[in-house]
Write a structure and sequence with these properties.
With 122 residues, the protein is of the alpha+beta class. It has a single domain, classed as endopeptidase fold (from Nostoc punctiforme), CATH 3.90.1720. Helix content is 36%, strand content 22%. The chain has a five-stranded antiparallel sheet with strand order 4-3-2-1-5. It is globular and about 55 Å long.
Length: 122
Amino acid sequence: MFFNIHPIRIISRPKLTGLGEHWGVQLPDGNVAHLTPDGEHVVTFAEFAQGRPIKEIRRAAPEQRAQIMQRLTLSLQHRGPYRLLDRNCETYATWLLGETPRGPQVQGVIFLGLIAAFLRFA
């Protein structure tokens, strides 16, 4: 009997509405953990993809598996609110992998907004 073990990795797909990407973490069983405004979810790969193309952002080191799964369990037991600026799909995915939680898309939009404001009032 063979078991399909997937690498733990951050993946993304185009958002269902609007611009940008939605991030999740593919787990060893192939399911994907992700955060939406409705909270933390673990769904099948197909449910996460929603028929859209999937892109790998980066993989976790195999030796991090136990810590990642522990963070996921804690997250599902102690659910927190979705917050666009500091607790979104990107920050959730990077946190699950044990990285500093960060959201490059939101940071980019804020940066562009600051530039636009500067140019407007300069």
